[in-house]
Amino acid sequence: QVQLVESGGGLVQPGTSLRLSCAASGSIFRINTMGWYRQAPGKERELVAAISSGGTTNYGDSVKGRFTISRDNAKNTVYLQMNSLKPEDTAVYYCNVQYLREYYWGRGTQVTVSS
Hints:
By secondary structure, this protein is mainly beta. The protein has strands spanning about 1-5, 10, 20-25, 35-40, 45-50, 55-60, 65-70, 75-80, 90-100, 100-105, 110-115.
C-alpha cells in the first residue's frame, strides 16, 4: 500500500520557476519508477517526466530542456524542477509511482502559469 502526497503547486508568472515534490509513504521497501504526469481541462493526461530506480530519466517533448526530475530514494520522494514556465504548462500535475508491479497516483497539485 502506497500513499502519495504532492506539494509545491501554485500560481506563478511566465518565465519563472517552481519545484514540485511527491512523498511516498506506507509499507515500502523499494520503489521502481517514479514520475510526473499532467492534465489540463478537456485534455488527456500526458507524461511530463519519469525516473527509474537507477536514475534513468525520460521527458515529454514539450518540457525537455526546461524541466528536471530527480529522486531521493532514502526519503521515497520525487521532485520536479520546472524552469522557464509557460502558460501552456498550466495543468494539474500528478505524481505516479510503480511499486511491486502496481501503479499508484497522487491526488494532484494545480500549477497555473499566468501574468
